[in-house]
């Protein structure tokens, strides 16, 4: 196959701070992961402390962690390859790509395997002690993967290149990703990374923190159970509805480069689970009433998140389906319609609202004395506001006047009457 490097740049508008952002983020974010994990293990747990709790280099590398990482990615790859649940990518019928969407099976099989290993005496809580070298390995794997993706993208067919990742600036293109759906045979690297090793790894690490708490204090706290339960629900939901990820901008629009590789493999498992890690060293007592309030908040958030995502997915797959046929819509010049009633008539991103409410419910069990467990809420709100702005730009370019009409009909973006 011919090299595609002489193709003219298709799209020159740069996001994430352009070339400077692309040079700084791959250094700054991995260091942030290591810093957060180190702070989490200090008794003070203060996010801003001087001198910063920098780990000694001997705590950053452990061959056992490297072996676990290789074993973990091999296990998840093998589970991904099991011939179950095939779905095609609806946005790109011309490529006619098929995806293995059997994430829920993979989660269940991983759980059974882990349970067997724990019964045979494997000390799962030991992952708490290994968390820094594990994060270092995950960061290393993301760098290697991103490098491989960048190099192989020069042999990809031109129609498989992402619009935003082909500026000609090597740093930026490495960061954003040049190829849309890189595959080895039928193994889709982006789809696999987005949902399997990182998301399942996140809940396994949470379970390890629970085990560590039991080792240290003899039983697990209500706060730890809530954090584990809420995040397990979120991950199970993502894997149960795995094919829905095929309509998100990450799969449809963005290339696969360092940002997503690192986000999926290192950022998600090692920063999304900070609350459980925090609770191991900073135990909290929760009253039954506050626990009830937090469960309610998570329930409301989850219900908005799930119902709005399902409503849009159903609408995009089959607009005539009886569950959504009664909803009001507006036509666009592309032939696609936009929902203007139901959840998508409430705010323009009801799914983000639900997600933020859940994020808050995951942090509240950790009390209000420390900032660290709220890192996820703050980061996630920034991510979603930025994501909303990117999506808005793309939708305005796609739908033109119809999008302006939608914005007039539904004036608030995420939080009604506020934003
Ligand atoms: N936990 C985490 O770290 C993260 C979680 N998420 C979650 O992932 C989920 C998916 O988010 P994301 O991919 O950002 O975006 P959305 O699922 O919100 O999808 C946006 C797309 O939906 C379509 N759309 C927008 N408005 C309408 C409408 N009124 N009627 C019909 N279609 C509409 C448009 O695409 P088109 O018209 O082309 O179909 C638009 O580009 C969310 O729940 C989010 O909270 C996202 C990022 C990170
Ligand atoms: C490294 C940067 C700071 C940002 C990286 C962003 C990524 C971590 C996120 C981009 C979109 C994501 C999604 C999920 C996880 C986080 C990333 C990869 C998601 C799989 C979480 C579970 C949800 O149910 C979902 C809707 C399937 C999510 C899809 C988007």
From TrEMBL:
Ranges annotated as spanning the membrane: 20-39, 59-83, 95-124, 130-151, 255-274, 286-305, 356-385
GO molecular function: Delta14-sterol reductase activity
Domain of life where this protein originates: Eukaryota
Membrane topology: Multi-pass membrane protein
InterPro entries in the cross-refs: ERG24_DHCR-like, Sterol_reductase_CS
Keyword annotations: Cholesterol biosynthesis, Cholesterol metabolism, Endoplasmic reticulum, Lipid biosynthesis, Lipid metabolism, Membrane, Oxidoreductase, Steroid biosynthesis, Steroid metabolism, Sterol biosynthesis, Sterol metabolism, Transmembrane, Transmembrane helix
GO biological process annotation, one example: cholesterol biosynthetic process
Enzyme Commission numbers on file: 1.3.1.70
Family per record: Belongs to the ERG4/ERG24 family.
Protein name: Delta(14)-sterol reductase TM7SF2
Species of origin: Pygocentrus nattereri (Red-bellied piranha)
Organismal lineage: Eukaryota, Metazoa, Chordata, Craniata, Vertebrata
